[in-house]
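WARN no homologs supplied; continuing
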Amino acid sequence: MKVHDIITLLESEMHTKTTDDDTEITGGYTSDLLSDVMGNAAEGDVLITIQAHKNTVAVANLVGMPAIVLCNGRAAPEDMVRLAEEQGIAIITSPLNQFITSCRIGSALEKN
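OK structure emitted
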C-alpha cells in the first residue's frame, strides 16, 4: 500500500506538498500516547491519531513512520506541516474516526 492509496481509501487530504505520496506503507499503528508509539510502532507503519502537533512528527520520524493520519477532521497546524515536510513524512487528515480509519487501512493492508 502506498500513501496515495490511503488518501483515496479515506477520502482524505494530504497537507504536505513536498512529501512523496508513492512511499510504501507496510503496517499501521493507532495511538494517541506518543510514548506508546515510540515503544511499539514499527518502521513503515502509518500512525493513526488525533495528536495534531509537532511532537507527533518527531515521534514518527524517530520510529521511521512515513505518514500520519489525523482523524476526526483534526487540522494540521502549520508548524506541524512544516516539520513533516522537512522530515519527509506525509500528513493526511481524515474526517473519519480512529476506529473506522484503522479498520479501512487494516483491511487494505491485509489484501496486499
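The domain at 3-111 is CATH 3.40.1390.20 (Udp-n-acetylmuramoylalanyl-d-glutamate--2,6- Diaminopimelate Ligase; Chain: A, domain 1).
OK
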